[in-house]
Amino acid sequence: MKALGIAATGMMAQQTNVDVISNNIANANTTGFKSARASFTDLIYENQAREGAATSEQGTTRPVGLDVGLGVRAVGTVRLNTQGGLTETQNQLDVAIDGRGYFTVNMPDGTQSYTRDGSFRLSAQGQIVNHQGFEVDPGIVLPDNTTSVQISESGIISAFVENETLPVEVGQMTLTTFVNDAGMRPLGNNLLQATEASGDPVPALPGDAGIGILRQGYLESSNVDIIRQITDLIQAQRAYEMNSKAIETADQMMSAANQIK
């Protein structure tokens, strides 16, 4: 009886589904986090009677076949790159992206990663870095005795230096886009990595056509819809229970068959 194996694949698929949903809920308050959903595909089918096969010498054929599927499996997690809400922080180094794009971060090993998390800080050398101390690309260093920083919607950074009445322009923040954002690989720590599936990074300036603008003093919240996640969690739980019920039923049927004398 194939029902045992088929239902087992269903239970494993729903366990993966619950894992993905749980991660979404756990990151509901993570800056710039994008929720994901698990996607599934049916497995191969065992063909017991071919549709269209001849059923008589007069040329009649079967209108439908007899195909028994062998279950389901998870094939991927799709990241939903919708805009998260903007939360005011009143921190002058917090920057939110309103629209498309990612900040570029230079990793210690010489590679680059990408993030929607604009909670930036200053290093001991006055350089703008992320919360792990990694340099934001392009590298921007604030002058000594900087009293405040101004970041425009187009990414121009100006520093107000002590005893100076006019701000000094110190750099330009840029954004990066990808043809297929969902194909980027999550690394943890709010960082993503480009892959062959995502396509090559495309540099742009904030405010360019199709590119987001920057909001100083704001951070982008996660786009997790808690109500939707709870609903999906209940549906996954019910599907898991039904698959376990199918195993129980198949077991009872085999037990009944074994007791026939």
Automatic annotation (TrEMBL):
Domain Flagellar hook protein FlgE/F/G-like D1 residue range list: 96-159
Flagellar basal-body/hook protein C-terminal domain location: 215-260
Main localization (coarse): other
Start and end residues of each Flagellar basal body rod protein N-terminal domain: 6-34
Gene Ontology annotations for the cellular component aspect, listed alphabetically: bacterial-type flagellum basal body, distal rod
Listed GO biological process terms: bacterial-type flagellum-dependent swarming motility
Pfam family, one: Flg_bbr_C
UniProt xrefs under InterPro entries: Flag_bb_rod_N, Flagellar_basal_body_rod_CS, Flagellar_FlgE/F/G, Flg_bb/hook_C_dom, FlgE/F/G-like, FlgG_G_neg, LlgE_F_G-like_D1
Subcellular location(s) of the protein: Bacterial flagellum basal body
Signal sequence range: none
Keywords of the record: Bacterial flagellum, Cell projection, Cilium, Flagellum
Cited NCBIfam families: FlgEFG_subfam, flgG_G_neg
Subunit details: The basal body constitutes a major portion of the flagellar organelle and consists of four rings (L,P,S, and M) mounted on a central rod. The rod consists of about 26 subunits of FlgG in the distal portion, and FlgB, FlgC and FlgF are thought to build up the proximal portion of the rod with about 6 subunits each.
Entry's family note: Belongs to the flagella basal body rod proteins family.
Protein's recorded name: Flagellar basal-body rod protein FlgG
Organism: Sagittula salina
